[in-house]
Amino acid sequence: MILAAVSGGSDSKGVLLALHEAITFGGFSAFSLSACTVDHALRPESAEEARGVAAFCTARGIPHIIRQWQGDKPLTGIQAAARAARYGLLADAAQEIGAVCIVTAHTADDQIETIAMRQGRSGPDAPGLAGMAAGVLVDRRAWVWRPFLHLYRPEIRTFLVTRGEGWFDDPSNSNRRFERVRVRQALTESGPSSVDILAASRARIGSSARAALLVAQHVQGFDGLVARIDPALFADMADPDSARTLLSIAAVIGGRHHIAGRETAARLAAFLSDAEGRRMTAGRVVFDRRKSGLYLYREARDLPQIELQPGECTLWDGRFLVTNSGTDRIAVHARDETAELRARLIAAGLPEPVAKRAVKSAIGFSAMAEVSFHPDAPALLQPTPCVQTHISLYDTFLPCFDLMMANSIAALFGRDPYSTLPVYGVLTEKSG
After folding, report:
1. 3-class SS shares of the chain: helix, strand, coil, % to 5
2. Which domain holds residue 65?
3. Within 10 Å of residue 115's Cβ, how many Cβ atoms?
4. d(Cα 351, Cα 325) in Å, to the nearest integer?
């Protein structure tokens, strides 16, 4: 089963029809097709447009699902929030129907706009300049495949017109309050070529492979709290793969979704080049240099405290995914009693001062329900929730460029490998 994300615009309608024809007439009968429209509820007409897509699908025998983005909408960063909500709802729908992947209709136009936006805030060799990946794993649950990245919007619209089909035009696509619209309107024919994009994609895959090897050879993890970096890795921050590896590990330790920017990277490089430098803090991470290596651990400040209802699952501090498997509410906070954990980290090979500082940012729990089965019983139950280290860089969105690197980091933090993109090789080989 393939789930197509369809808004009713020309691109998504084109990918839906192309898949429908491929499965019905093009020799892909082993696959089946469903469609999902996410109604972001940001415009009064969006619900009617979603129903129009449903009618279009029904006329062609394509099962269709509508999912609506519920709740309050943010006043700023609305497009990023809508994107996150959309992918989450699509992943939910894919799981419900047993789809092997989600297909979206991102085009070469979208790719050029994305690269142009990233050029304005990235260095010349930044990984993000490879653009959007052909495949992205969402929430470790569902792969998103983008088969139209090599096609331009006029080609897709010609395909629709030859079949007598129209489409919806979202007015937000011409609203200059959004960065992408401003970039789109400013772009000229001087944008990156398909050859440039392909070269950048291959370079990023190569960088990911080298970084994966660097992690395996030079980085050691301790309970998801500390990473030790061999001096050989951070000796030359001018090497882009070494720098990327170090900054990626720091992002995971700090619970960040993105690696640090150019200013932080430059400050870190200056610190590491200074033989007298002992500790610096950046991006919620302490960089603690010692003779045995560079130790990274979470800064022990601004650690959240939250309540978790029975059966509820949440992300704590961007670093740990916590599920309350008990029957009572629990509080999730920084650990109070650290002697046992500190001793375990020291026994595993951490210097005592590093272990002493690192445990202050460890996750802890306390029950919020009194017990009274026995007069001598403790006042509070000791909860034992399920805790898993969260790989902040990749557990939400993992581009296929970085699969090797992501698996190397997952192993470092005791996580299972990420799944590989299904059907992608089959479909591209057939279509090529």
Report:
1. 40, 20, 40
2. 2-192
3. 21
4. 34
**Is residue 6 domain-shared with residue 140, that is, in the same domain?**
yes
**AA identity, residue 419:** S
Q: Is the pLDDT of residue 190 over 70?
A: no
Q: Any idea what the CATH number is for the domain that residue 95 is in?
A: 3.40.50.620
CB 153 within 8 A of CB 11: yes
Q: Is residue 348 part of a domain?
A: yes
For 61: left if phi > 0, alpha if psi spans -120 to 50, otherwise beta; the answer is: left
CB neighbour list of residue 198: distance below 8 Å, 6 or more residues apart: none
Rg (CA), the chain: 24
- For residue range 108-126, what is the model confidence (pLDDT) as tens digits? 888 888 777 777 666 666 6
Residues 184, 333, single domain; the answer is no
Query: Do 66 and 50 touch, CB atoms closer than 8 A?
Result: yes
Residues 179 and 317 in one domain: no
- The answer as to whether 414 is a domain residue is no
Hey, what are 317's tokens? Answer: 């501090």
pTM, full prediction: 0.86
Query: What pLDDT, in 10s, does the model give residues 315-350?
Result: 999 999 999 988 889 999 998 778 899 999 999 999
The Cα–Cα gap between 9 and 225 comes to: 45
Output phi, psi for 48, to 5 deg.
Answer: -65, -40
Ranges assigned E (strand) in 30-114: 33-39, 64-68, 101-103
Tell me, yes or no, whether 227 lies in a domain: no
One domain for residues 52 and 187: yes
Query: What are the residues facing 5 on neighbouring strands?
Result: 36
Asked if residue 174 and residue 317 are part of one domain, the reply reads: no
How many independent structural domains does the chain possess? 2
